[in-house]
Amino acid sequence: MNDLELAVGLLRDTPTHENRTGEQLRSWAQTALEYGDELAEGPDVETIHVIEREGGVRKGEVLLAEHQRGTVIVYTDALRRTEEVARSRGWSVTRESLRRAAVAHEVAHHRLDVRELNRRLGHTAARLGPFRLRGHVAGADEIAAHRFAHRRSGLAVSPLLLTAALAGRD
Amino acid sequence: MGIAILILMAIGVVLMLTRILPTAFALALLALGIAVISGAPLTGGKESILTGVLQNGAVTLAATMIAVLLGSWLGSLLDQTGIGGTLVRKIVEFGGERPAVVALGVFAVSILCGSITGSAPAAMLAGVVGIPAMIAVGLRPVAAAGTVLMGISAGSPLELPVWQFMSDALGAPVSEVRTVMIRLFPIALVVGIAYVLVQTRRGARHAWAVQLDRPKARIRRGDAPWYALATPLVPIVLALGLTVPIVPSLLAGVIYALLTTTKWGDLNERALRSLYKGFEVAAPPIALFVAIGMLLAAVKLPGAKTALTPIVSAISPAAPIWFVVVFAALVPLCLFRGPLNVFGLGAGVAGVLVTGGIYPMTAVVGLMASYNQVFGVSDPTSTQTVWAAQYAGVRPERSMLSTLPFTWVVGLGGMVLTAVLYL
Ligand SMILES: [Zn+2]
């Protein structure tokens, strides 16, 4: 599966998109991936503080990294789990590139502008005569962050594919 | 004899806690046991075991059962017509850039769902789309589950079947129950909003998180038209604003939902299908209400009344301040199917408080309603908490820890209110 299909799958699994057409989701996924590419071309300006911790593998959730008050927390047990899943599928993924991807994913969230992304996605939530109210597309920021992380980390497989594999959706 | 009844009640609590017996069966057996201990005759008039406890007790809460059934019918309709899902979807579309707005919106939808129907069906109505939607915009799973639970509980002072239950169980007129509930609602609302704001104060959780074994419970439903989205308001506006009785208020909601969402040709089928689904959803509470009715009949038997009243009156504080302190401290007893669980043994305790004349009726309504606010959100064994927590991917006990400090405050607020107004 290519990234576009995986991104469509991610949107499809995000609540609120149950009734959207495949065509609509495909176009949003494409826009979000392009936004991720564009962000990855920009220079790195901020310095990020990264700490490592155990405790990302939980009941019902695998948390690889999260972003809290300017600090990125990378969960080492979740990285190990991801590495195992990747190895079982025959993908060569190094721990270091995985860690870089996890950090980059959070940098992307920090950097991306949800309003700007929504403007590009152009979803209209409500219309009253000539007035249009822009709507939020849940999950699109996640797609952009995955693409950004892929570009920055040099991972052999796409984070979208890893995510799908972890969730058992691949 | 009073002590023997208390020991029997303690055994009943242990049986429920350890899940050896389902709550409804345990309460029915408890009713029989109390009747036997208090020396009620097997046959005979209204104070006999067969007629008084089993026959009349079983139908004591009949009006409540119908109200619960209608609430469940309306809940099923909100689900099947896509009204519930559409409300949440609109909230995410309008507020998705700010997680706090989405959470407050889902909280508001949960209040509406909680005012229609209770426990797990209400949580599902708001949570099936609402919980993953909140997680998708950056709420922590435990906060997403807690937001839905706090919402349905804030809606429960407005839940018409609950009014009917308090009225039937304690023999209070619906108008008095309504007065207590309207005053409790703002407390639950304000504390609920505080919960949501505290949980979203740190902003969105930006993460690379993978949700595992997501239940495929989300069925695709069409969008409901905007005017249909007012359905949850119909019963409460009628009952509260126009003092229409409970059953017609709920029926009006059902009819409004059907007419605004369904084509003429499909009306019969949808109405029947959602009604039968409503029966299924209402089965557990109705079984419970049959048993609670028997328990209430048993504790009101003359023998039980004379045995229990001195004991309960000795341990029930008279001064308003001690009323608040003691009953607020006893809050944990309404959790884990404990003796103050309003939809369990607590109903029997309330019955003793009323029939023994220990507190005025309105004060008992206030007390029970206060416990209901805690129980409805935080009890890790109640179906709505279990469902919401597991659906969000967290343990119900974690959900309890997250919400209990807030619901305890609501309970305390309700008790202060009760003491000030009615003692
Ligand atoms: Zn992310």
UniProtKB/TrEMBL annotation, chain A:
Per the UniProt entry, what species is this protein from, by scientific name?
Answer: Kribbella albertanoniae
**Protein name in the entry:** Uncharacterized protein
From TrEMBL, chain B:
Superkingdom of origin organism = Bacteria
For this UniProt record, give its keywords in alphabetical order, as a comma-separated list.
Membrane, Transmembrane, Transmembrane helix
Q: Does the keyword Membrane apply?
A: yes
Q: Where are the transmembrane segments?
A: 57-78, 180-198, 233-259, 279-299, 311-335, 342-369, 405-422
Cell cycle found in the keyword field: no
Write the protein's name. Answer: Transporter
